[in-house]
Amino acid sequence: MSLCLFSRRKRGICATIILAFLVCFYSFEVPASEPQSPSYQASQALTFRLCIESQNNMPFINGDTVTQNLALGERGVLVDLLLLTARELGINLSITSLPWKRCIQEVKQGRLDGLFATIWSKEREEWAVFPKSATQLDISKALWLVNYPVYSRIHSDLRWNGQSFTGVQNGIGAPFGYIAYHKLDNLGVLPKRNLNAKEALPLVAKGRLDGYVIEKAIGDRYIEDLGLQGQLVELSPSFMQVFWFLPVSHQWYRRHQALTHSFWLNMASIRKREGKRLLENYANQ
Fold first, then answer.
1. N-term to C-term CA, the chain
2. How confident is the model at residue 208 (pLDDT cuts 50, 70, 90)?
3. CA 106-111-117 angle, 5° bins
4. Which of 86, 144, 205, 224 could form a disulfide with 231 if both were Cys (CB 3.0 to 4.6 A apart)?
5. How far, in Å, CA of 89 to CA of 82, rounded?
6. Of 77, 64, 65, whose CA–CA distance to 197 is shortest?
């Protein structure tokens, strides 16, 4: 069972475990001083218009509310990472909070310039540009490395062997439109109704849903907030371990190809230097 399913005061231990899990991807160097909150007021600066999902995916992204004033330490690890990158490059950053499918549509039409956090797929390359080295996906320029477990009720008959499920009676859910959702659909195990994590996890605890797939740190945070500690377990092996990216629209990329690559490169550098500190900032929030 995940240690993160226990009390909030153990959240610091949980954060340490998560950081150890990410060590192969992130070479952290904690800076000597805390950077100040960025201010993007220069009217002549280019504005990079990004979209996030309009729900709470903390500790990474809080899209519950829309605000014109973006400040470090308020909206999640990934928002902070992109704020620092924009400041370093001297550009404005605008973030719009919308349902995930609407984010995709806005980027596809070029009304917004990018969205995060996004898992690569061949289909998504039709409407967005991901960082590549030659013809290969460049994971060194990813936002974050993440783990998606299957959360199930303790003592459930549900089993996952890395290829298929057994013991499915009521279905296994995931956030609608996510890669995990489509994988579950292909396996034929989705429930009849689409559910978000806040709706689904209590149903899993009651045995009315067999399981739910969501990123581990986000899932553990929901379990803590919903008071479900000790009622759910993570199945082994993990459902998927993947990289999150910040892809951009084809329209933006055609206009700002060099800037896009500079943004991805600087973002990766800041993640290596400050990713540990950014994650620790939200560990107990």
1. 22
2. very high
3. 50
4. 205
5. 11
6. 64
pLDDT, tens only, 97-121: 999 999 999 999 999 999 999 999 9
Band of residue 253 on the pLDDT scale cut at 50, 70, 90: very high
CB 225 within 8 A of CB 162: no
- Helix pair 77-89, 257-282: axis angle to 10 deg: 140
Task: Output the six-digit token pair for 61.
Answer: 């992204």
Question: Could you please report the per-residue DSSP string of 197-223?
Answer: HHHHHHHHHTTSSSEEE--HHHHHHHH
> What confidence tens digit (pLDDT) does each residue in 231-241 have?
999 999 999 99
Q: What number of other Cβ atoms are within 10 A of residue 152's Cβ?
A: 24
Helices first, then strands: H and E counts in the chain: 8, 16
Count CB-CB contacts under 10 A for residue 20.
Answer: 9
4 secondary structure, DSSP code: G
- The pLDDT tens digits for 158-170 are 999 999 999 999 9
* Nearest-angstrom CA–CA distance, 102 and 73: 26
Rounded to an integer, what is the distance from CA 218 to the centroid of its chain? 8
